[in-house]
Design brief:
about 260 residues, alpha+beta, about 25% helix, 5 helices, 4-stranded antiparallel beta sheet, globular
Length: about 260
Amino acid sequence: SRPLARVLDVLQEEPRTCSYLPDRTASLLHHIQVEVTPLELEAMLERGWRRFGPDYFRPACDECTACIPTRVPTGTFRPSKSQRRAQGACADLEVRVGTPVFDLERLDLYHAWHAQREAARGWEGASLSERSYRIQFAFPHPAAREITYVDPETDRIVGVGLCDETPRAWSAIYFFYDPAWAARSLGTANVVVQIELARRRGIPYVYLGYQVEGCASLAYKSRFLPQEQLLHIPGDDEEPEWQLAAPRDVTRSGTRT
């Protein structure tokens, strides 16, 4: 059938210092496109693409294949003891699922979370504007979902998860939260919540983005088991090949989802 998506631009970055392995160079291929249907997005996820607003991207590095697309089969996932503990520690939060929106509460929460990451992990500073937030996190799309975690005592949002939902795929895009909740492992609880939510909706896979061996920032991805990995980024004439990762292989760290 004819693709419905309308491609506005195709860009490949000039090689730059990799954000995840600083001793290497990296380049992403970007498709800037609109009117992408949920089924078209689902097919792109299966082929290793990710989405931020109208920007669909995947690695296009000449000499490195460290970015491994990863997904969790919802039917066989079983949370570990520590994941169950994190979920229990955050069980008093109200979980709301809706359409992504912008407001100052969300923007302030993002900046508080990012500032903590800058101090603790040496991340580069970020000053996300309202326009950038709307484009990256609240761009209109039929698959776009937002999970908010609300403290019932204060009615404050303490965590925001940006996601996509298609008939056979749930994609975890980005998560930020109140640093005061870090001790309760809200980030871990959020992934468990998304996997269980997808399973209840009959969605067989939750896509966690890329893993990169040697990148510690998002090593948590390797702990959600079992999981499958895309063997390689397929060419236009190739079918994607996903393979169940053996436990010894699931030690790769993650990158930006």
